[in-house]
Structures are given as C-alpha cells and as structure tokens.
Known about the structure:
Domain CMP/dCMP-type deaminase: 5-126
Pfam family, one: dCMP_cyt_deam_1
CATH class of the largest domain: Alpha Beta
CATH topology of the largest domain: Dihydrofolate Reductase, subunit A
GO biological process, one term: riboflavin biosynthetic process
Organism: marine metagenome
Number of strands: 18
CATH superfamily of the largest domain: Dihydrofolate Reductase, subunit A
Strand content: 15-25%
GO molecular function: 5-amino-6-(5-phosphoribosylamino)uracil reductase activity; diaminohydroxyphosphoribosylaminopyrimidine deaminase activity; zinc ion binding
Number of domains: 2
Strand order of the largest sheet: 11-10-9-8-14-6-15-18-17
Amino acid sequence: VSLSELDREWLLHAASLAGRGWGRVHPNPMVGCVLTRDGERVGEGWHEEYGGPHAEVNAIRSAGDTTRGATAYVSLEPCSHHGQTPPCSESLLKAGVARVVFGASEPGDETGGGGELLAQAGVEVVGPATDVRTFHEVDPAFFYTTRYQRPYLALKLAVSLDGRIAARAGERTPLTDDDANREVHRLRSGFDAVLVGGETARVDDPLLTVRYGLDPRILPTRIVLDPSAVLSPDASLFSTDSEAPVLIFATEAASVERVETLKDVGAQVEIVPQADGRADLKEMLKRCWGLGIRSVFCEGGGRLATALTREELVQRLYLFKAPLTLGPQGVLGFGSGDSTPEDLGWSSIGEPTQFGPDLLLKYDREADVSRG
C-alpha cells in the first residue's frame, strides 16, 4: 500500500520505538506505536516487557483522553487473539481510534487478522506498506521463525581490513575496541543463545555472558559445538557465576568419559550425527528448536562460520571491521582473503555504523529477511 509522506514518517518513528524492546520481549515481536491527531503526536509506546502491555496499549495510555478520532501508526499489524493480554485490535476500537496504518502484516495464523477485524468495525485500515522489508527489519527473527519454524541464525565476525579474524591459528587476537564490544553484548542480549566452535572456546576461553550492565529478560544459553567433547572442565564457561546454561553439541566421536566429564561440571550435552565427517549443523539447529531456542548468535570461529555460511544456515551477518591488518599468516574469517560479503551472495542492510574506531556492516543472506 502506498503511504503519504507524513504516514511514512510516523510509521518509521513507530518502527524506531519498537527496537527499545530488544532483549526484553522475545519470543514476542518488538512493536512500536504512535498516535496522532491533526498531524500532531498525542501518544506513543512500544512493547516493553514480555507478558506486559503491547505497544498499542502503551500508546493509548500515554495519549490519555485524546485517542478518539486519532490515527494509530503501528510497525506490525495489530493482533486479534487473546494471549497473555487482550487483542490490540480491540484496545484500539475501545479507544475510538479512527484510522490504523501498519507497516508489516502479522505472519502468525493465530495472531493475524487484526486489520480485517478493525476494517469490519468501520476503522480505516492502511497496510502493509509497499516497502514491507523496512518493517520486517524491525524484528527479522520473529518473521523468520514464525514462517519456517526453525532457529534464526546470525553470525558475528570481527575482521581486520584484510579479512582476518586472528593473527595466527590458535592465537587469541582481540580486534575491536570497547564501543564495538559493548554493541556485541547488546546484540547477545536479544538472542536465545550464543554459539561458538570448540576451537574458539579453547583458544579464547570466553564467558559468552551478557555484560556491560545490560539486563536481558532471559540469559542466552551458551552453546559450544565441540564434536569430540574435548573442552576442558576448567573452562571459564563453567567457572563463572552466571546462571546462563551451557549446552555442548558433540558427535559420536566423543568418548563417554569426555561427555560425562562435561556433564559433571554442569553442561547439557547433546549428541548429533556426523555428516561428511563433521557435526551435522542442520541437526544441531533442529535440536536447538526442540529445546526452545528460537534465535542463535554465532560468534565464530572461522571454520564454523565457513561451514554455516556454506550450508546457507545463516540469515544475518554482523561484520565488525577493525582499522588494522594482520597479514597473510592471519586466519581468514570466511571465503578467500579478497572476498567481500557481496561476492559471497550477501545483501547489505542499512548504513554502516561507527563504534569508536570500528565499523559495523550488516548483511542478509537474501534480499527479503522474511524468506529462508
């Protein structure tokens, strides 16, 4: 649906509000809402907390007694189902809203249809927007998982200007500055799990927790793909006070003794089959889904990143570029040293963002983030 310039301006503002729910509302979608009358904003809100009021209700409350005859701009089509809260479409009707403009259609069979209900009640309904991808981008994991019923996987890599992730194999090489590191932790806070390969876990000995004062509603599960279960029981993953669970994916190559050792220090160990001599990554993600993990944030290393991208299991790439070079002896992130994400079939998303000296670029595997 084609929108006026003013409609689009308010709708984009609603989309920007939605992002404030990052890390607090999933598996619900992030949604923002703005209420206007005579071209002036009278209220706004977003879905702030899982199980709490939705964006439309918060916007109505902020508008007080000025909602009758107002226009509601919502990043996602208002829901029409009874869940932990009443349907947003009914709340808009009770508030006397005369017009509803939404960016993206609600993809769920049970939750969709709010726009139709509002139209049947005499409300003018406009949506979805022509550039629906802009509003899918508000919460791509929600659209992907709702449609495909499998985990949304994002890959984060920090690389040098010459595409290296480490100075040498087996050597921990910090690349990004504190501002970029804080952004990585913010990203972690919005995913159900953080994943690394076994080699990265051994070399970097990471905690994989969310720090920098951030407070996600659910602590992301810390996953290590460790086919032979050789991760040390003395690893930092097990020594931290964090309540975030540790999940190890091993294969039949792992000895019973190694598996039991990891279980003894608190890890949950899942055995997945091998495919072409390597852990079956698709089966790993299938197990994640069965365990209730809907979104996974992979932080490397290079071999795992290459395998996941080769099998087209990654939907989003967060690429941090540090202003330094590591030379030909360095470890490649993925592809060849001269390859760019575009060369490998990725589509750039949005504008690059500066974090201190480092640059963050975002890419999707396909042009439409709602597709698999």
